[in-house]
Structures are given as structure tokens and as C-alpha cells.
Design goal:
single chain, alpha/beta, Rossmann fold, 2 domains, 5-stranded parallel β-sheet, elongated, binds cytidine-5'-monophosphate
């Protein structure tokens, strides 16, 4: 869930600032974009250069760092940029400042101007943490919706033992992950996606295939996973890598293989998304060895492949939803509407090769969507943006999971 998120990491003046380096690295490893804000005290513990080098972005700690160039650091922009403002370590001083609304340094100004949620990972000595004032500040923050990653117990820098040491970076990253998951709109929905072409063997080296790249289906899987769905991606022979965050990715070559995978998983799915370009026919006989040129037949007898989507439609329960795709070389609406009814779909996505930049192998697509009433037409966009549009369009059709 952290993948693709913008996380503003606030580092304040505690010895645990060194652990923030590992936290930044862990969040980035999970796919987050991380920017760092430090208080002056934090820079005494860890140099800003460490974070700047690690994240690839300058570190912010003052309003006036660029003053000699006539610019100032905009705390409002930073606050608006972030999906989450994570303050780790958060000292007793910073917690008190947040609770009272103080604005006496740059990090505190970012706190007041951020619209995203705020998460703090306190770090301090056990008595400071247990102090009624600190506990009152934490309560105030919690009541305001601030998320608190409780400190752990153990040896403290003071030599004392007790509760106050900042939680370990992995665990804080898990808390960030859980935070995004809890708010993800598609949480609890199981989405089964077919993507890519099929290859129907003629012999050991030749096949009947099509020009599908699988890019659209992979973009859809990425978007649904990002939005918290439990994604199973059935991916055909393509060089496009499956996205991060899928619960399961299974590769297939032929329509028969895809059909076996798709039908086995369909009863457990809430959504079926048939983005694969499945061959309609296959060679009736596939030779195990390579057939030499001189022995190639003049004609290859063909046999139909199973219509996976039609079978999903025929066995669809009332709380399952089905989305088909239609790629046409003409305007296509009539034929897409006919597929919509014939295959018992809830939605069909049409792209026509009449539109420049739409269809196979491109990085862009232009789609129209039909869900039984009107056609909704979208602009030419990247396949990732088309996936975001489609996933947002379908969300109101979810049954509660
Ligand atoms: O009938 P047509 O092949 O144009 O239908 C396209 C839709 O049906 C796509 O969603 C495609 O993934 C699905 N389909 C399928 N199994 C087939 C053929 C098409 O699932 N054998």
C-alpha cells in the first residue's frame, strides 16, 4: 500500500534520528517517494546530506535556505504535496508543539499547513514519555486524528530501561502500510484480471498470437492493488512485468491454460476483469516437434477456444461483477453493446483502432465505457490514467465485501 505514496518524513532532535535513515530507506524500498524535513536539533544527530543522498531530494529545515537566491522554502507546498506527514522520531518538544499548535520552526509550520494525515513515532526517555504532560499531548493529538506509533520498551540511550524508544523502522513502515490500507477504497474486494495475449501453438516453435502487450491489464492490476483490492492477475506471454502489490500473479500461454486458471478462481472473486486478448481459435493439432518447412501443411485446421468471459457471465452470482473489453477497428459501439448483453457483463470497455494512440502496444489509450445505460467517453490518456478512470468509474458498482 505504500507503493507510489508521497511521504514527508519529519525528523526531530533525538538520538533515534539515526533510525529515521533506515525508515526512509524502507519506505522507499516499498515504493514510496520520500522527502525529508528536519529540525535544527535533528541535524546535530544525522547530517541532512545522508537523507538528501538517500532520497534524491534536498532536505528542508529552514524557511530561508534559498534566501540568497531570492527564494524561500514553501512549507505550504510541502504540506500539500504529502499523502502522509510522518514524524519519526517525534520528541517530547515536537509533540508539545504539535498539541499546542506552535509554529516556532519550519517543521512545525509544515505541520500546521499540511492537509494530509499526520503520524508520529515518539522517541524519548521513559520518564519523559510517562510524564502526564506528554501523555496529555499525545491524547490531544490522538483526539485530533493524529496517528501514534507507540514507542517500544527496552534499553534507552540514557542507560535506563523502559518505554520510550522509537519503534523499529520496519514496524513504522508496517503502520504506514496499514494506514493506507485501512483507507483504501477497494479494500476487501477480490479482483481477478486476465491480461495479455495468448499464444496457440502450431508446433514446438510457432504459434498463432496477437498484438496485445498486456499493458492495459497490468495498469489495471497496478491501480486496483494501489486502491487496496486483493488482485489476482492472470498474465499471458508478454515482456511487461507484473506490478507490485498483487496478491497472486499466474502466467499462462494458451487460451486453454488461461481458461483453467480463470474458471478455478472465479468463484472466489468479487470482480472479473477480462482484459486479455484471447485468441478465438487455435490450431486443432499442435505438433510437439518443430515441423520442417517442407512438411508444413498448406492449411492449418483450427478449433475454437473457450470463451472465458462468457463462462464467467453464465456462472455469475448476483454479488459478482464482470467487465469485458472490446477492441474494434470500426466505431464499435453496437458490437460492444451486443457483447455486453451476450456475455452478461456489468460493464464493457471499448477501444477502437480508429482513434490514434488507442489499442495494442501503445502506452496510451482512449476508451468509452458502457454499463447498460449511456456511453461514457474518456480522453486519450496514459494507460495508467485510463486505469485510474476505470477503477474510479467502477467503484460505485461494488457490492459490500
Ligand atoms: O468476443 P470478443 O473476443 O471480442 O470479446 C472480448 C472480450 O471477451 C474481452 O474482454 C476478452 O478478454 C474476452 N474473451 C475471453 N475469452 C475468449 C475471447 C474473449 O475472455 N475466448
Amino acid at each position: 500500500m505504500v507503493h507510489g505514496r508521497k511521504i514527508l518524513l519529519g525528523v526531530t532532535g533525538s538520538i533515534a534520528a539515526f533510525k529515521a535513515v533506515f525508515l526512509a530507506r524502507e519506505l522507499m524500498r516499498r515504493g514510496a517517494e520520500v522527502r525529508v524535513v528536519m529540525t535544527a536539533a535533528a541535524t546535530e544527530f544525522v547530517g541532512p546530506l545522508t537523507f538528501a543522498t538517500l532520497t534524491g531530494h534536498r532536505v528542508y529545515s529552514d524557511f530561508t535556505e534559498d534566501a540568497d537566491q531570492g527564494t524561500w522554502t514553501n512549507h505550504v507546498d510541502l504540506g500539500l504535496w504529502a499523502d502522509l506527514f510522518l514524524v519519526a522520531p517525534a520528541t517530547a518538544e515536537t509533540l508539545a508543539a504539535f498539541a499546542s499548535g506552535a509554529c516556532s520552526n519550519f517543521l512545525q509550520a509544515v505541520h500546521l499547513s499540511s492537509r494530509c494525515e499526520v503520524m508520529v513515532a515518539p522517541a524519548m526517555d521513559l520518564d519523559m514519555f510517562a510524564h502526564a504532560a506528554t501523555q496529555k499531548n499525545l491524547l490531544t493529538l490522538r483526539e485530533r486524528g493524529v496517528l501514534v506509533v507507540e514507542p517500544g520498551s527496552g534499553a534507552l540511550a540514557s542507560g535506563l530501561e523502559g518505554k520510550g524508544r522509537m519503534e523499529e523502522p520496519d514496524r513504522i513502515a508496517d503502520a504506514v502500510d496499514a494506514h493506507f490500507l485501512a483507507r483504501a477504497p477497494w479494500r476487501g474486494q477480490r479482483v481477478l484480471i486476465t491480461a495479455g495475449p495468448t499464444h496457440e501453438p502450431i508446433d514446438a516453435v510457432r504459434f498463432i498470437g496477437n498484438r496485445s502487450s498486456g499493458k492495459m491489464g497490468v495498469a489495471l492490476a497496478a491501480e486496483w492493488a494501489k486502491q487496496g483490492a486483493e488482485v489476482t492477475l492472470l498474465l499471458g506471454p508478454t515482456s511487461i512485468a507484473p506490478p507490485a502489490g498483487c496478491a497472486e500473479v499466474v502466467r499462462f500461454e494458451t487460451a486453454e491454460e488461461l481458461n483453467a486458471l480463470a474458471q478455478a478462481r472465479w468463484p472466489e472473486a468479487d470482480w472479473g476483469i477480462a482484459a486479455a486478448a484471447v485468441a478465438d481459435v487455435r490450431p486443432a493439432f499442435a505438433h510437439k516437434e518443430k515441423v520442417h518447412r517442407a512438411d508444413l501443411p498448406a492449411a492449418i485446421p483450427l478449433a475454437p477456444t473457450p470463451d472465458i468471459l462468457a463462462q464467467w457471465g453464465a456462472s455469475k452470482r448476483t454479488n459478482q461483477r464482470l467487465v469485458g473489453f472490446a477492441l474494434e477497428t470500426d466505431e464499435g459501439r453496437a458490437s460492444a453493446e451486443s457483447k455486453f448483453h451476450r456475455k452478461q457483463l456489468d460493464c464493457i470497455v471499448l477501444n477502437t483502432l480508429l482513434d490514434d494512440g488507442a489499442g495494442f502496444q501503445t502506452d496510451t489509450n482512449k476508451v468509452s465505457i458502457y454499463a447498460g445505460a449511456n456511453w461514457h467517453t474518456f480522453e486519450l490518456k496514459s494507460k495508467a490514467a485510463v486505469a485510474a478512470d476505470l477503477v474510479a468509474f467502477l467503484h460505485p458498482y461494488c457490492y459490500p465485501s
